[in-house]
């Protein structure tokens, strides 16, 4: 059933043209070699080292037409590279949010039989690039699963180490602590709005109306850059609570509030700096940039709380404070409407 | 958007009627509480104990219409309970095949928005039942991900511990070693053939033609029972190579042959005992029962090799021997045609 690769370049080959073993043989050389692993891919399971006697673990899935679109009505194409990047980035971010360092990924790919082999190879390349460029040195793919399905579904489980430190949970915020963020809240949401807008050019790149700023916003959506050095830095600095902003600042702040049994009061003035670089795109689309800042997820920056007087690590910006009382999120002491992403009810 | 559960019982509620938080709140009480876990569900990641400094990990996916069918043309319905059971069983089996003991699962569910909430609850119940009934005491669900998609896709990553022992890899078989199996090779494949047969009754149960034997075969396919005590027992007994029979005896034997650089010669006479209980179904369907024994996967029994003179643990049966030479599988020294499951090329 296989065809000669020399007659049929990989961008035309479909996964149905290859055996599972042949497809794996094409993918493995593209994936980062895991370090500090006791047994890598090729057996029924892999074996990870856990020098401090603990393993951190999380799982995340991306689904075609829900978490990404291969092709949008305006012609923009999300590449395999983009999906591989995002798959790695959002998983690495979950370990970062605990104050840990990612050590391995296991990856399951559900592929329509007509999926071009080149798409899957690009997926592997994007995954590898994210691991390297985001600074997850030593983290590699130690196992996986391949199967057929009606749409592309990409799941990765990620493991990490705390390197002997305590984890930073969502539940440790106390009244009087400082609320701080890293990264670029709202940027990925603005990028998504641009991607969904009809004014994108046919080739899927932002039109001149959006310019270089538009490209940056789109990149934040397609290839988020979680600040992997800052999770451990926050842990070392004594962060009392932390998570990654994946579903929107207000919604994620609410999770710390609930887990910690405190209120989080955010300062709209401090947050306005994040809206400023989005104003141009917001004006073009006729929306309020602050809505992206407050409700947009997927940037995978960190939201953390620090005890009074703690020195915030470089990269964190104070944007509010923890207050006693109901576990609610307020903006300058006013109730904040719940915004952000819910997978089913929206 | 939610409706009152009192007006709308869960078998009519669809996942789109609930928020993600509400759906999780319905699932968690049904899932087994993990033991020996340092941090369970509810944060960005969970934290597992790894007392011997190692964590075993694997990942497996089940896809609607590829790995299971909600409804077959003959009327048989695969329940959420069945899919939950199988999801747990096949993942637990991967740890068993290393000689380890499963400690946790992280589970990602991709659900069409119209999926009945009752289906997802049954999934959780089946997962829990498999963990308990198969003897994976202490193993629990420590995290997960929920999302929407066009078809049901269920992925679990499983972790395990080796309890201080060495893992049993695929690569340790040496000429002269004994080849042994556990479980019921061919039974799940026979069950699948019955499930796909038109002679099933309308309500999806095997007709009287198939009788009690038919029900057993169908159960082997829908709710496989990997022998979780036997992986560690084989490790203690000195097994030199091991894997779980998931894609077919010949195909999986070939994996040990390739990894170990040896031949595996299987004894057809010894294997015939596994065909005997399948003969009645085979005769009804007009097929050769030995084809199910040699090519059928999904029973999740173990295939292992043991050094000469090693006492096989109770539950293992000698079915051949490791021979020098090319890494091939033979049947009474005759070349065996490759059988079994390949996800794309079949």
Task: Describe the protein in words.
2 copies of one chain form a homodimer. By secondary structure, chain A is α+β, with helices and mostly antiparallel strands. Chain A has 2 domains: 15-161, 2-Layer Sandwich (60s Ribosomal Protein L30, Chain: A), CATH 3.30.1330.10; 178-335, Phosphoribosyl-aminoimidazole Synthetase, Chain A, domain 2 (Alpha-Beta Complex). Chain A has 10 helices and 13 strands. In chain A, the strands form 3 sheets. In chain A, strands 8-10-7-11-9-12-13 form a 7-stranded mixed sheet. A 4-stranded mixed sheet of chain A has the order 3-6-4-5, with helices on one face. In chain A, strands 1-2 form a two-stranded antiparallel ribbon. In chain A, helix 4 (187-195) crosses helix 10. The longest helix of chain A has 17 residues, at 80-96. Mean pLDDT of chain A is 91; it is low at 1-8. The interface between A and B is large, with 77 and 77 residues. Strand 3 of chain A pairs antiparallel with strand 2 (46-49) of chain B, so a sheet runs across the interface. Chains A, B: Mg(2+) 4 binds at residues 44, 58, 94. Chains A, B: It holds the Pfam family AIRS_C.
């Amino acid at each position: 059933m296989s065809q000669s690769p020399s007659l049929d370049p990989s961008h035309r080959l479909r996964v149905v043209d290859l055996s599972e073993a042949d497809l794996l043989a094409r993918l493995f050389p593209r994936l980062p070699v895991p370090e500090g692993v006791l047994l890598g891919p090729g057996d029924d399971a892999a074996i990870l080292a856990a020098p401090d006697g603990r393993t951190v673990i999380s799982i995340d899935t991306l689904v075609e037409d829900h978490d990404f679109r291969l092709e949008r009505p305006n012609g923009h194409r999300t590449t395999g590279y983009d999906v591989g990047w995002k798959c790695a980035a959002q998983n690495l971010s979950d370990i970062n949010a605990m104050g840990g360092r990612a050590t391995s990924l296991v990856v399951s790919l559900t592929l329509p039989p007509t999926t071009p082999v080149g798409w899957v190879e690009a997926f592997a390349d994007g995954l590898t690039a994210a691991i390297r460029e985001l600074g997850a040195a030593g983290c590699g793919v130690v196992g996986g699963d391949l199967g057929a399905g009606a749409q592309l579904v990409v799941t990765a489980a990620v493991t990490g180490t705390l390197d002997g430190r305590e984890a930073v949970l969502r539940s440790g915020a106390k009244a009087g602590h400082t609320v701080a963020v890293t990264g670029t809240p709202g940027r990925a949401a603005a990028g998504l709005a641009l991607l969904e807008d009809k004014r994108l050019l046919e080739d899927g790149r932002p039109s001149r109306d959006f310019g270089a700023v538009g490209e940056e916003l789109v990149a934040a959506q397609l290839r988020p850059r979680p600040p992997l050095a800052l999770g451990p830095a926050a842990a070392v600095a004594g962060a009392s609570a932390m998570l990654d902003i994946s579903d929107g600042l207000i919604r994620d702040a609410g999770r710390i509030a609930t887990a910690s049994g405190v209120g989080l009061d955010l300062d709209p003035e401090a947050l306005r700096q994040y809206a400023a670089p989005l104003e141009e795109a917001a004006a073009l689309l006729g929306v309020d940039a602050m809505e992206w800042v407050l409700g947009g997820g997927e940037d995978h920056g960190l939201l953390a709380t620090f005890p009074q007087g703690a020195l915030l690590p470089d990269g964190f910006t104070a944007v509010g404070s923890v207050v006693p009382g109901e576990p609610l999120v307020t903006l300058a002491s006013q109730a904040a409407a719940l915004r952000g992403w819910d997978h089913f009810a929206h």
